[in-house]
Amino acid sequence: MPATSKPSSTKKVAIVTGSATGVGAATAILLAEHGCNVVINYTRSKQEADETAAACRAKGAETIVFQADVSDDDACRAMAQAAGEKWGRIDYLVNNAARTKFNPYKKLDGVSKQDFLDIYAVNVVGAYQMIRAVTPWMKKQGHGSIVNDSSIGGVTGIASSIPYAASKAALNLMTKSLAHVLAPEININTVVPGMIQTRWLKGGMGEEQYAAMLKTQGEQLPLKKVAKPEDIAAVLVWFLESAHLITGETLIVDSGIHIGTLPPYSSGDSY
After folding, report:
1. For labeling, which of 17, 111, 233, 263 is most exposed (least CB within 10 Å)?
2. Which positions are annotated as active-site residues?
3. What CATH number does the domain containing 113 carry?
């Protein structure tokens, strides 16, 4: 709960979960570039988190590097409290931390009840706990913006595993539910990326399969571009900074693959 006599920072303050690498790191750096102080959160990648923090400081930001597993409610509350105590405010929250288990869909025995629980604990419960932790600060100051980083798997059902896709669908719907109760002080939205060029995805798929998918996606995407972390970061930050009249929205950012392809009779090609 907000309880600090420290004067509020003149800079806005952002917490970005899972921000040691990938989309989270790119988002933290972009927010720093835009004049925010930033909390860099990690679970295991301390060296990368420190590097991201250094990049933020090079942009003129103050930083906190905070180790926390967002599935732990006490850790979520402590992270929000650390930001509030240091700077006297919390303006933005980006729920980017995520967990999966790469598993072929047909291999139904490849995922267990515990896998579901572990994935939901981070991707859904963790996001909820972080939102709950920052809400008192945002409500007290009269404004705040939250954006959840989801996945196209939560829309199409096709992702690294069935539990992951299901968790992202839950996150998308939870955003709509929370939009009702966080308003009018706080708006909350979700970005739904397609494939992103990240170390996380490459490590889970393996280099050969990752390269093949990258090539295939690049050929099939209407816009012929597979997103980089910076592309998704730009949309996340736009929601935070500029989408003041948007809440409960889910925005797909996938170079257009969700629209499908035209059949020959519609495209004008011969058939």
Report:
1. 263
2. 164
3. 3.40.50.720
Burial status of residue 158 (CB atoms within 10 A of its CB: 0-12, 13-18, 19 or more): exposed
Query: Rounded to whole angstroms, how far apart are CA atoms 253 and 266?
Result: 24
Q: Of 234, 240, 269, 214, give the one whose Cα is nearest residue 30.
A: 234
- Domain membership flag for residue 267: no
- Condensed to tens digits (0 to 9), the pLDDT of residues 90-118 reads 999 999 999 999 888 999 999 999 999 99
Return d(Cα 212, Cα 118) in angstroms, integer.
29
Strand partners, 227: 196
Q: Is residue 34 part of a domain?
A: yes
Domain that holds residue 228: 13-255
Query: Among 123, 121, 97, 115, which residue's Cα sits nearest to residue 44?
Result: 97
* Total number of domains constituting the chain: 1
pTM of the model: 0.91
Instruction: Identify which of 42, 258, 263, 27 has the alpha carbon closest to the alpha carbon of residue 147.
Output: 27
